[in-house]
Request: fold
Amino acid sequence: MKKLQLTASITGLMLLMQSTCAFAQIPYVYEEQNMGKDFAAPKKVEVAQLPTLHNLPDPFRFQNGKRSTKFKDWEKHRSEISYLFQYYEIGMFPSAGKESVTANLENNRLSVTVKHNGQEMVLTAFIQYPENATGPCPALLGISNCLPVKSFMDRGCAIININVFDVTSHTQKRGSEPINRLFPELEANGSYCFWTWGVSRIIDGLQLLGPEKTKIDTKHLAISGCSWAGKAALYAGAFDERIALVIPQESGGGGIASWRYSETLGEVERSYNTNYSWFFESLKTNFSQKDIDRFPIDHHELGALVCPRALLFFGNPDYKWLADESGYVSMQATKEVYRTFGIEDRVGFAIRGGHGHCQFPQQDVATLEAYIDKFLLGKDADTKVEFAPMFENVDWKQWISNWKK
Reply:
């Protein structure tokens, strides 16, 4: 009997070690923007023909109905999900990529020129380096950043403040923005498509110039923004795998919050009362109120596009418009993807009141710094955080009860 128990124990330990090794091999970040570029695009279904689904869509189910929770299939899942966001919410990304980019850095001002269609536009970012920086620094890409700069710079990280308004204004006038000179055929696109594309061109510029010139370690980049910019940071981080740590702050509807769940909350930011210059104008007619159940994706999947890279969400329940109960449900659904792959330490959230909109609470500084230490600096840190005591009785699991094999 003892020999049998010993054999079973050794077998169990070996399986555990194999499992741990498999999870350890899951990358923290990638060197390319679009790892799924070679997968075929799924067929676009007309809105009227889309099936209805009350619960949150299953990110592990392919468009052909088959399901896989294997990590080796995750890039294909990501590819399909990313196309669906482009088809139905923000528009297809402009075709010009790294091959159309030139870059210059002078007096800490990064200028990235993109040429296309006989036109050109210049994207800009200003770099703040930590004191006595010599070698390549990890960096935070800031879109109207509201996180405490000190937490980054004291750890040797640079801050790269990106002017996304070089691409399109806060509330774009379709057809009249700088991006429209290069891509007039994409006039219907939402700003989150264009801003995401612009952030990726900034990263292209950093890579083209190289760490010797920029003093930036592009393998250890974070991105953050708050409110409308929290949405922008989430989109940019979701669609560019070169960003190691994504930190959306108080992003509201169209950020991490689920459009479906927000329909249960009353007067919050929903699919039919948001700023439509940020999305397709048709969002408010195709997927409003009861028709939201036709939306083939939802924003837990925008969060899931970040996986296996790190994701940290900060909410503020004092502002009802932000729909943080919906954000909580969506983050739990996003986290289910990370849990499935055994990397739940790479995703966390803290939803805390008692402070103004986009004013970062001191109580969350330790959580932020743990994520910086682990995912930008490669240090050992405890990044398992789920703080949302006001929603502890919310039954989020019922919203993913349809995720079955």
About this structure: Strands lie at 101-106, 109-116, 119-128, 137-143, 158-162, 216-226, 245-249, 310-315, 347-351, 386-387. Residues 61 and 67 are 4 Å apart (CA to CA). The two ends are 37 Å apart (CA to CA). Confidence is low (pLDDT under 50) at residues 1-22.
